[in-house]
Every structure is written in C-alpha cells, then in structure tokens.
Sequence to fold (238 residues):
Amino acid sequence: MAIHNAGVLHGMVAMNVVRVENLHKEYQLGQQQVQALKNISLTVRAGEFLAIAGPSGSGKSTLLNIIGCIDTPSSGRLWIDDEDVSGRGPDQLADLRARSIGFIFQTFNLLPVLSATENVEYPLRHFKELDKAARRGRVAHYLEVVGLAAYAHHRPNQLSGGQRQRVAIARALATQPRMVLADEPTANLDHKTGEGILALMKEINRGAGTTFIFSTHDPKVIALADRVVEISDGELLA
Fold:
C-alpha cells in the first residue's frame, strides 16, 4: 500500500520545512525567571528523520512545542516551509498546525470514548473540503498503513500500548502534514514494541518523504536518526 503525503503529491516540497533563528524562551516561575531556550538556531530539511536529544529538563520538548506552533518564543524567528510565522496570532497558528504539522505524544492522547477510526478522523473534521466519504477513505488508508485495519472499531482501552501509538501515528498522518513531531514516542512502550513503532515511522519517512522530528533521550531513536541535534540547559551543543 502506497503511503501518501500531501506535499509530495502536490509537488510543493520545500527544501526546508523548519528554520529557527536566535530563538529564546523564558518562563516566569514565581519570582524566578527561567531561561528554557537560549539563542537556538536550527534548520530542518524536507524528508529528514531528526532527533533532538537531551536529558529531562534540557529544553528539547520546549523547542519541539515552538516548532509545532503550540508555544511561542520570547524572541527570535520561526519559519515553516520558508514562511515566517513568528508574528502570527493564535487562530493563524492553529490553522497552520491543523494542515502542516502532525503530532505524536508519549501518552498517545487518544479520546477514550472514540474508536480508532473516529480518533484518526477527528482532526479531519476541520477540513471543510473533505466530505464524510473522503474522510473515511483517508482514515481507512492510514489505519491500513499502520497495520490496524482489523481494529478500526476498537476503542483505546481495547488496544495495547503499541496499537494505541499506531492509532496516534495514523491520526498524525491523516492530515497529510509536511512534518510529524514526536515527543518521546517510545517512552511508554516496552523495548520490542518501541522498536516496531520506530521501524514503522522510518518506513513512512522513507516511503512518503514525511519529515519526522523527535524529542528524545531514547538510544533507539538516536540510532535510527539521520541527524542528531543535542541540547543541554536550553542550548544546542556544537
């Protein structure tokens, strides 16, 4: 089964999917100001399988959230597909996230009352150009890609951890994003299941050209990455 990607299909593959320049992020914790990111500059090319590696508290998840337009920097600039999105408002960023960025989380973030099909279909409801038949066709395709066609009507509590993460991958891919951001995607999986999930994501990366960016301290992810960027105390290591 072919693995489709919107950017590849429409011939709109930019050389860079992400560029950040002189990025800083500060938080106020009580009376203390915390510098989560310090002068980060990074370019991610289309089709990369990139690991942002570092220990807990290093800033890797903060960086991933800014790249994913979930959070905004205190200063610095961010380009997605060579478009400067630094000054965009919440609604514009939400639309960008919906159409260009897929997310995979370590806690799966599936809606427990919905079936696998309904969970994968959920983000597609924001796409007014897709009718119900088109949505269901896309959902069926991606559930097959992740090997869960037979579990389409199962709810999350009827699935194993690995199967739930596969549903999350299908949901991330269903919007046909330019990139998928994965925050510690193997953290809640056993070793063998985690290896299977990583192999699946690598296959999708190679087959569709989908860019994957991980925040991780998992040696298995780091070993599979095309490139590893190390972060410590909010700074990229040379």
